[in-house]
Amino acid sequence: MTATKPSPTPEDRRRRKARMTRDALATAACDLILERGSAATTVEAIAERADVTRRTFSRHFSGKEDAALDFVRRDGARINALLRARPADEPPLLAYRRAVRDWLADRDDPAWHVRPRMRRLLALADSEPDLFAAYQRIRVDAQEESIRIVADRLGTDDARDVRPAAVVDAAAGVLIAAMRLWARGDERDAGAADLAALVERAYDALTSEAAAATPDSTTEE
Length: 221
Prior knowledge:
Residues 1-20 are annotated as: Disordered. With 221 residues, the protein is mainly α.
């Protein structure tokens, strides 16, 4: 006997419609900013491209840069969800690294960074001040949540214990460094295009350098 799937509730349909509208606005913002640059792109143009009103845009986003970088916020939330689900006895730095690995390896819902236009947008964020500021705000929000997750894993208070922030800032910093290098690379370079491999090499570099920097690993003169 085949089980019958429950019908979507009105609330489910509303959420799905809101998600579709938000995605349409984010896509329009990305496309227009890549076509015209941030300064020449208006919220009105984004709303028109997405076929919604200016008021609808304001219900979803605070500004055009916020809309264009919505994928950064979503990916940050996904990494945090994966981090929260890692085994409790896993060291926090390793847990963060594996959460990032699982996010990049997800074929059902691929990370947005691997799409060519996202790569161009990340590169543009380095040169467009408003985009860069929005990127930094979104990144900091995600890392603050990561710090709380790591603090819970360690059973400590992140306001008094430096370990959660130190782990997250190091782990997230490695990811950001790899992404910036990837975004600046030549899209024809297959090696640079493999973000997942680049991220793994970056984490290997961190752990290697951290091991070399421990007091017991060097002889002081």
